[in-house]
TrEMBL record, chain A:
Keywords, comma-separated and alphabetical: ATP-binding, Nucleotide-binding, Nucleotidyltransferase, Transferase
Superkingdom, natural source: Bacteria
GO biological process terms held by the UniProt record: sulfate assimilation
Catalytic activity: sulfate + ATP + H(+) = adenosine 5'-phosphosulfate + diphosphate
Keyword Repeat: no
Enzyme Commission number, as recorded: 2.7.7.4
Designated name of the protein: Sulfate adenylyltransferase subunit 2
Statement: the UniProt record of this protein carries the keyword Transferase: yes
From TrEMBL, chain B:
CDD domains reported for this sequence: APSK, CysN_NoDQ_III
Summary of the function given for this chain in its UniProt record: APS kinase catalyzes the synthesis of activated sulfate.
Gene3D superfamilies cross-referenced by the UniProt entry: P-loop containing nucleotide triphosphate hydrolases, Translation factors
Native source species: Marinimicrococcus flavescens
Pfam families from the UniProt entry: APS_kinase, GTP-eEF1A_C, GTP_EFTU
Protein name: Adenylyl-sulfate kinase
Recorded metabolic or biological pathway in which this protein acts: Sulfur metabolism; hydrogen sulfide biosynthesis; sulfite from sulfate: step 2/3
Assembly notes: Sulfate-activating enzymes, NodP and NodQ, may be physically associated.
Catalytic activity: sulfate + ATP + H(+) = adenosine 5'-phosphosulfate + diphosphate; adenosine 5'-phosphosulfate + ATP = 3'-phosphoadenylyl sulfate + ADP + H(+)
Length: 264, 623
């Protein structure tokens, strides 16, 4: 087994634990490279099937390429696809900085969707290396009724045993690729030939390294026009992945506040 | 596996030690020295420190969270990556504060090697020892000790020698031999990547060399096959048994056994999606298989080869560490998670509590939060497991209380036999006659025989008091025990019966039959009824056979009438109650009771003691 095989085996184990232990499970599909890998891993774990709903919480501000990608693969991969909308910006916490408010729409949309469908578990494609606060996450991360994440008192996880039962009213975020890096994602995407939105590849000297809403995501300077070039670029870069995500950088603690309130 | 730089396997390391002994500083230094910092991070933290009017701290690199900086302690494990010439690393900055031991465990349990930091000035502290102890319990065998803050002790070789010797002796008590003990200053950069001119007396490995000296652990391919079943899928026409292979390897066509149901079948296929049709799979892989026979298999069972199957037992010893808010108590029940199996478990005994300061052991009835000890655990159902030494993945478990994982332990089967032979019914084509589960098997599982303790005696003799006290005591010791009395029988089973002589006889007959069934099911039944007629008691004895024990709860009529707890004798004397035993209808005392408990001569405690001894002698399983 090489490094990617080990990562894959671990993620499949986690997905199967979630499916065995959680009653109403869904996967959050953001259409980006990470959640595409998670979907792929689901099909590996469940032998070609995705045995739970695949939900897109839509801000309606994504790039057109993202919507085209979504509509195509929801059909092609035979997904049980659900689309939920986010509330207007006015519904968010006015004390957050502007891009933070934009990101907070997604949190509210997500919370409403969880309530509407009564999901007990939600699978998300976040990774520890993306961001310092995500680095603190657990594979199985419980949230209380209001979606709050209690960062300071998390359940221990060891010996492949996770917290898989919960008091009434709790839901759990499951993070099967928490231990992967950005580079792992790209190498795996290449090896498995997983489809990808081509905004990730350079056009006119710019490409998107991370995909979010149009208004709060900026492209980076890059000549990497295909997957090999992206991998080569990432092997030498020292710029953080989410540098183009405005909401992470407005204030020292803005991302932490978003996360505590239920942001992905 | 290729061993060149790019493809060398990543090593997971953990950094532990007492609070403030410099873990975050070490990590900050390491990632800076190896060039792993994201661009701009060093500058951002420098600027942040200046804004706060503080000197630059390497630790700030790690402490990305507001709350952490305010409290000044690292709360949780964070994974940070860097790379040396030899290979990539992922480091887990484990916290040192006592309250956060569960986070240290979370980090260290997945580590292949550890750096343990000790402050040269403060010396070996409580957490230095506790973390060392936990590393050994968690199975982290590769440990390098870094004696940090040498700058604060004037780079003294003597001071280093003292600390190193003290800690080496402690680790020796755990059977752990550190790969090296290195004097460093993480803040000043001494002996981190190169030998420091300030400690010419030290010529051993640097911190980075110590890291590169560790080995990535080989997968346990050579151990017996173990695959805990995670699930059985039927998404299409295939019935796939899914799980991860924890040890050994598996080939198509091999015969396998599922424990503890002990069913066997052959592997028809190894299933995969977008990965061909493998013929062989090995430890570490998440797989799916189909079988040649449609046997019923479920989550929690362990798949192995027939020849080297895991042990089966419902009782075992364990060394465990405890993280729960409430102490672990003797007699308490928890949920046990072992592999993919979950079941209720009782702490039958706490054999000793370990003081991690000096590794001394003492007797106790509880293990406090962040403590460690040795216990005997008993489950209701049979478990498939291994001695931890022989197969760590199937020889360790987690305890859960109120949904929350609260402890972990490793299995020892020392002194307990494998129960596999007691329950194995290997042939699948024999029609069952009688019970498939024998009485012996139930006795072995429960740790005691089933039986009926038939209490008889006058009203007010103390039957109920003793029955309920005995039930409580036996239950605490892990017995399957249940009291049948007027309250739970008259309300349902015998609701249709009145209090005339025929109805009373029928009442006792039914109770006798029910008690016999309970006894057959492995329970110790305590029936608590006056049951005044010998003939009625004889019938009950016939129903239960040899399992029937007549217990005469003896008190004179005068004594009972004196006590008269419910005022019944008074009302009977006044003629308000017809046919009252001892007053207006007879009580026939037993002629040959197995035990006579004279409640009018002995205090309750002594009566209870008599009963407990009797039960211990007659019902405890003596293999």
């Amino acid at each position: 087994m090489d490094h990617l095989d080990e990562l894959e085996a671990e993620s499949i184990f986690i997905l199967r634990e979630a499916f065995a232990k959680l009653d109403k499970l869904a996967i959050l599909w953001s259409l980006g490279k990470d959640s595409n890998v998670v979907l792929w891993l689901c099909r590996k774990a469940f032998f070609g099937h995705v045995p739970f709903p695949v939900m897109h919480v839509d801000t309606e501000r994504k790039f057109p390429e993202m919507y085209a990608f979504r509509d195509r693969y929801a059909k092609e991969w035979n997904l049980n696809f659900i689309r939920e909308l986010c509330p207007p910006i006015e519904a968010t916490d006015p004390t957050l900085p502007p891009a933070g408010r934009s990101a907070a729409r997604k949190t509210l949309g997500l919370r409403a969707a969880i309530e509407k469908h009564g999901f007990e578990g939600l699978i998300l494609g976040i990774r520890r290396d993306e961001e310092a606060i995500r680095a603190k996450e657990r594979y199985f991360s419980p949230r209380d009724e209001t979606g709050q994440w209690n960062l300071k008192d998390q359940p221990p996880e060891f010996w492949n045993q996770y917290m898989t039962s919960f008091p009434e009213g709790t839901h759990v975020r499951v993070h099967p690729i928490l231990h992967w890096t950005e580079l792992d994602i790209w190498k795996y995407t290449k090896r498995e030939n997983i489809p990808l939105i081509d905004l990730y590849f350079s056009k006119n000297g710019k490409r998107y390294r991370s995909l979010g809403d149009k208004d709060i995501t900026s492209p980076i300077e890059s000549e990497a026009a295909d997957i090999d070039a992206v991998i080569a670029e990432l092997e030498t870069t020292r710029t953080p992945e989410r540098a183009g995500r405005a909401m992470d950088h407005e204030a020292e603690d803005s991302f932490e506040r978003l996360r505590a309130a239920g942001y992905m | 596996m290729r061993q060149d730089k790019q493809d060398a396997r990543q090593l997971k390391i953990v950094i532990v030690g007492h609070v403030d002994h410099g873990k975050s500083t070490l990590v900050g230094r390491l990632i800076h020295e190896t060039g792993a910092l994201p661009e701009g991070r060093f500058e951002a933290i420098k600027a942040q420190s200046e804004r706060r009017g503080m000197p630059f701290e390497w630790a700030f690199l790690m402490d990305a969270i507001q709350a952490e900086r305010d409290q000044g302690i690292t709360i949780d494990t964070t994974q940070i990556r860097f790379r040396t010439e030899r290979r990539p690393y992922v480091i887990i900055d484990a916290p040192g504060h006592k309250e956060f031991l569960k986070n240290m465990v979370t980090g260290a349990a997945s580590a292949e090697a550890a750096l343990l930091l000790i402050d040269a000035h403060e010396g070996v502290q409580e957490q230095s020892r506790r973390h060392g102890y936990l590393l050994s319990l968690l199975g982290v065998r590769q440990v390098a000790v870094l004696v940090n803050k040498m700058d604060l002790v004037g780079y003294s070789a003597d001071r280093f020698g003292q600390v190193a010797e003290e800690y080496r002796a402690y680790l020796k008590g755990l059977g752990v031999e550190p790969s090296c003990i290195i004097p460093i200053s993480a803040r000043e950069g001494d002996n981190m990547t190169a030998h420091s001119g300030r400690m010419p007396w030290y010529q051993g490995p640097t911190a980075l060399q110590a890291l590169d000296g560790f080995e990535t652990l080989p997968r346990p391919f050579e151990r017996p096959l173990r695959m805990p079943v995670q699930d059985v899928y039927k998404f299409d026409q295939r019935r796939i048994i899914a799980g991860r292979i924890e040890s050994g390897s598996l080939e198509v066509g091999q015969e396998v056994i599922f424990s503890p149901s002990n069913k066997t079948a052959r592997i028809r296929s190894i299933e995969a999606w977008q990965a061909g049709t493998p013929e062989t799979v090995r430890a570490g892989q998440s797989v799916g298989v189909t079988l040649d026979e449609q046997i019923f298999v479920e989550r929690g069972e362990v798949m192995s080869h027939v020849a080297d199957a895991p042990q089966e037992t419902n009782v075992f010893k364990a060394r465990l560490f405890w993280l729960g808010r409430n102490a672990l108590e003797q007699g308490a029940r928890y949920t046990l998670k072992l592999g993919t199996l979950e079941t209720e478990v009782t702490v039958e005994a706490i054999e000793r509590v370990i003081d991690t300061d000096d590794l001394s052991a003492k007797a106790a009835t509880r293990i406090e939060r962040n403590g460690a000890g040795e216990v005997v655990l008993r489950t209701r159902r049979l478990l498939a497991l291994d001695e931890h030494e022989e197969n760590p993945a199937t020889g360790r478990f987690v305890l859960v209380e109120n949904h929350m994982p609260v402890g972990g332990g490793i299995v020892s089967m020392e002194g307990y036999p494998d129960q596999r032979h007691l329950v194995t019914v290997r042939s699948t084509n024999i029609t069952a006659v009688g019970h498939a589960v024998t009485r012996e098997a139930r006795t072995a599982r429960n740790g005691h025989k089933g039986g009926v303790l038939w209490f008889t005696g006058l009203s007010g003799a103390g039957k109920s008091t003793l029955a309920l006290a005995l039930e409580r005591e036996l239950f605490a010791k892990g017995y399957l025990v249940y009291v049948l009395d007027g309250d739970n029988v008259r309300g349902g089973l015998n609701k249709d019966l009145g209090f005339g002589p025929e109805a009373r006889a029928e009442n006792i007959r039914r109770i006798g039959e029910v008690a016999a069934l309970f006894a057959d099911a492995g329970f110790l039944v305590i029936s608590s009824f006056i049951s005044p007629y010998r003939a009625d008691r004889e019938r009950a004895k016939e129903a239960a056979g040899a399992a029937f024990h007549e217990i005469y709860v003896k008190a004179s009529l005068e004594a009972c009438e004196d006590r008269d707890p419910k005022g019944l004798y008074r009302r009977a004397r006044q003629g308000e109650i017809a046919e009252f035993t001892g007053i207006s209808s007879p009580y026939e005392p037993p002629e040959a009771a197995e035990l006579v408990v004279p409640t009018d001569e002995l205090p309750v405690e002594e009566c209870l003691g008599m009963l407990m001894r009797y039960v211990g002698e007659r019902f405890q399983n003596t293999r």
